[in-house]
User: What shape does this take?
Amino acid sequence: MENVIECRNLTHYYGKRLIYEDLSFDVPRGRILGLLGKNGTGKTTTINILSGFLQPRSGECLILGEKIGEMNPLTRRKISLLIEGHVQYQFMTIEQIERFYASFYPSWNKAAYYELMSRLQVAPHQRINRMSCGQRSQVALGLILAQNAEVLVLDDFSLGLDPGYRRLFVDYMREYAKAENKTVFLTSHIIQDMERLIDDCIIMDYGKILVQQPISELLGKFRRYSAQVKEGFELKNTEGIYNPSVIRTSLELFSMKPEEEVKAQLACEGISDLTVERVGLEDAFIGLTGKY
Amino acid sequence: MMIKAIFYKEWIKTRWYWLLALLLSIGFAGYAMLRVARVYSMKGAEHLWIVMIQRDAIFVDLLQFVPLFVGLALALVQFVPEMHHKSFKLTLHLPIRATRAVTAMLSFGSVLLIATFALSLALMWGYLQSVLAPELWQHIILSTLPWYLAGLAAYLLTAWISLEPTWKHRVINGVIALLLLRIYFMSPAPESYNSFLPLLAVVTLSYSLLSMLSLTRFRDGRQD
Assistant: This one.
C-alpha cells in the first residue's frame, strides 16, 4: 500500500533534553493513524514537524512524496491542518472565513461547509472569537470538509470539547475519512475518542515507539492479568510482561503474549488463580506505558 | 487570487483601526493648519514668514510623534491577532510561499499607512500653499517627512517584533527598534534631514526584511 506520510529516523532535542531518537513510521493511504503518548513524549513535536513548523535535529518527513521542508506550496492544498484547540482566525465571521479560504482551494466545497454551519446556533455575522470551543470545532471541521484534502493532520482535536461535540467530531470525521479514502494523522489526549476513530495506533514512550500496529490487532491480543499474591511479592521473570504492579496483595500486569504462555510463565512463580480480561484502548495504553 | 485573499484578511483586521488612524492623522494635521490659519488671520502673512525664518518655527511640531504611534498601532492591530493562539500557523499553511504571504501582509499595511500619511500631507499642502510662498510651505513639508518615515519604520519594526516567536528575542528586538527609531528624531532643527532623506527612506523600507527573520525563526520552531 502506498505510504502518504513517511517519517525516517527523526531525532529531536529541546535544548539538551532528548525527545526521541531515530523515530520512523509510515501512514498508508486511506488509514487513520492515532499518535498516543503521555505528556512530553513528543506528540506535539511530531505534529509540528509534520506541519512544517519545526525543523528536527536530524531525519526527515515526507508527505505525498515531498520533503516537508522543501514542499511546493501548492502541495499544501492537499493537506488539511487542524491546530490544537481548533484555532481559526478569531477576527473573522463564518462567512468571511469561508470566502477567504475558498480563494486558495480550487476544489473548495462551499455546500459542505454551509451544510454543517446550518446546524450551529450562530448568526452568519457572528465572529469566531465569540463562539464556544465546540462551535469553533464545527467551523474547523466545516473548513476541513470544504477543503477536501487528501491528507488530514489533526492536533489534539478533543481539546476543550464537551463529550457531545467530541462525539460529533469523531463520528463526522470517521465517516468522511472512510467514505472519501482520506489519510488522517491525529493526536488526542482523550483515548476513548481515538478508539472510535482510528485504524492504527502508535503508542509512544519517552524517546521511543512502544507499539505501532492496527488497533484491532493490538486489542485482539492485549490482556490484563490480575491475581492475589502475598504482600511484598515481586515478579522475577518479566519477559513479555508490561508494567507489573502490586498494590498490597493485588497483582496486575499486562501482556500481548498468548494467554497460555503467560499462565505458564506465572505458574512458575507460584501464581495460578489468574483473572484474564480483554481491555479497551485506554487500558491498553496504560498497560503499555504505566500509570506514572 | 491568493494575494487578493490575503489582502481581504488584512482588510478585515485593520479596517476599523484604519478609519480611526485616518481621522486621527487628518485631525492632528487639520488642527495644526488651524493654528497656522489663526496666526495668519490675526497677524498676517508677513508675521508668519518672519517667525518661520527668524525663529525656525514650522507650526506643526505637535505632529511629530503622531505617525510613529499610528504606524506602531497598525502593526499591533495587524500582527498580534496572527500570533494569538499561534494562528500565524494557519497563514503559513496556506498554499502560497510563506515569504510571499508575509510580503503581501506587509505591503498591505505599508500602503494603508502611506495612504494615511499622504492624505495628511495633502491636507497640509492644500492649505499651506494658499498662504505661504513655495520656499516656506516646502520648508514645513520637508521638515515633517522624517516623522512620516518614522511612522513607516515603527510599523515595520513592530511587525518584526510581533512575528518573533520568543519573548526573549522580542525584548532584544524591541531595544534595537527603539535605537533605530531614535535616528528619526535626533535633530530638532527643521529640514536637517534633507540630504539624508533618500537614504533614510531606503533604510526604512529595508526594515521589512527583518520580518523574514522572524518568519524563519517561527518556522524553525523556536520557542521560549
